């Protein structure tokens, strides 16, 4: 069977079934270890307690998979003692069902001030300085500061990033499953390509394929044909596939809250010499970034390695086009984009357990673009791919 085209949606979906080797969920002892590490890091930055709002960090520390809304939900973690969850009273049953840690609860009714409860909990912790989740909205953080004006507030980013950047073996396993599932979806997506297919049809197939493998559908999906590929996140309106187009598909799913995010770019029909040259250069830049990723190397140096390849070929420099318009990569985990970032100015030293995308996209303005995106995790000696990179412009998956 051809790697690109030659099949259809019904045939490809019929051959998919739920993942047979699911990764285990995060264990209770790992949640306890996360809290202990957070307490240690909070003390290191001179704070007496950490405030974490609803979102991916609350999921990380407490297992509660709730997004932020206008209602305050927060965890107060003192450097000594048990965490306290501030939550609307009517959500208590749902909280207890999701909560993966032992914690006190402080509940508020609709007409009451949750900021006052947070302030009371912080006062009970003792001390003077509070580290605040940088993802907590300004409005919520401001309301807490006004309810407890005698306290000093500092960014909790060193604590949260210090915990979440380094993935455990259990986290790596969940990420591996998500990425392996998405790679399988990419393989089958390429097979349904045909002249006249629309980007909407392809997105619907990708959604159904992820679901067939056991995910809750796509966490996101970008499908671009032809000229649209010259714009990193596409153009408005419908796209229709024509012979000679490049196809760019960027998609992912979640497993246990952990993300995949893989991009493939390939030719529908015979690629032009220029398309092939840019594709080969993109692959070389991606390989250079991977080779540069080692413990102790600064994140920005990985970005520089990819750019050196592109600039040596006469493109760029910096963000000029034709060339690479955006950073080489981003951290990934419970958030699809999270610290650290493979970009000039980010001096974060790579450490074993850190996970990154590798996607130094090359754009030829208003004509086409090539993005090859796979993810790696840093090991003791270098880096290891979660998924093998695309081998050729006419072969999306090895």
From TrEMBL:
Pfam families: Creatinase_N (PF01321), Peptidase_M24 (PF00557). GO terms for biological process: proteolysis. It comes from Pacificimonas flava. It comes from the Bacteria. One of its GO terms (molecular function) is aminopeptidase activity. Keywords: Hydrolase, Metal-binding, Metalloprotease, Protease. This is X-Pro dipeptidase. The keyword ATP-binding does not apply. Residues 34-166 form the Creatinase N-terminal domain. Residues 174-380 form the Peptidase M24 domain. InterPro entries: Creatin/AminoP/Spt16_N (IPR029149), Creatinase/aminopeptidase-like (IPR036005), Creatinase_N (IPR000587), Pept_M24 (IPR000994), Pept_M24_MAP (IPR001714), Peptidase_M24B (IPR050659), Peptidase_M24B_aminopep-P_CS (IPR001131).
């Amino acid at each position: 069977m051809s790697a690109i085209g030659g099949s259809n949606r019904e045939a490809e979906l019929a051959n998919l079934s739920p993942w047979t080797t699911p990764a285990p969920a995060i264990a209770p002892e790992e949640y306890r270890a996360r809290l202990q590490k957070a307490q240690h890091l909070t003390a290191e930055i001179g704070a007496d307690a950490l405030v974490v709002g609803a979102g991916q960090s609350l999921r990380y520390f407490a297992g509660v998979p709730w997004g932020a809304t206008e209602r305050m939900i927060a965890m107060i973690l003192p450097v000594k003692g048990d965490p306290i969850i501030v939550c609307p009273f009517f959500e208590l049953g749902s909280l207890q069902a999701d909560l993966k840690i032992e914690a006190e609860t402080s509940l508020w009714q609709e007409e009451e001030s949750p900021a006052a409860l947070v302030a009371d909990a912080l006062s009970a912790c003792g001390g003077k300085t509070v580290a605040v989740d940088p993802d907590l909205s300004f409005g919520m953080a401001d309301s807490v500061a006004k309810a407890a004006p005698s306290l000093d507030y500092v960014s909790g980013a060193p604590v949260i990033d210090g915990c979440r950047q380094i993935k455990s073996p259990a986290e790596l396993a969940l990420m591996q499953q998500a990425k392996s599932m998405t790679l399988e979806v990419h393989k089958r997506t390429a097979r349904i390509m045909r002249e006249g297919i629309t980007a909407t049809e392809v997105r619907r197939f990708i959604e159904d394929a992820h679901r067939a493998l056991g995910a809750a559908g796509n966490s996101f999906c970008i499908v671009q044909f032809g000229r649209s590929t010259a714009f990193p996140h596409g153009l408005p309106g419908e796209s229709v596939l024509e012979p000679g187009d490049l196809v760019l598909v960027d998609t992912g799913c979640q497993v246990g809250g952990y993300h995949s995010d893989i991009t493939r770019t390939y030719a529908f029909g015979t690629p032009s010499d220029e398309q092939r040259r840019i594709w080969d250069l993109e692959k070389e830049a991606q390989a250079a970034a991977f080779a540069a990723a080692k413990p102790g190397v600064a994140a920005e140096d990985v970005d520089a390695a990819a750019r050196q390849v592109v600039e040596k070929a006469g493109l760029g420099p910096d963000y000029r086009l034709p060339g690479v318009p955006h950073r080489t990569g981003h951290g990934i985990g419970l958030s699809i984009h999270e610290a650290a970032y493979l970009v000039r100015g980010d001096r974060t030293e790579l450490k074993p357990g850190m996970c990154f995308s590798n996607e130094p996209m090359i754009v030829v303005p208003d004509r086409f673009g090539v993005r090859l995106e796979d993810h790696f995790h840093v090991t003791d000696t270098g880096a290891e791919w979660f998924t093998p990179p695309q081998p050729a412009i006419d072969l999306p998956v090895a």
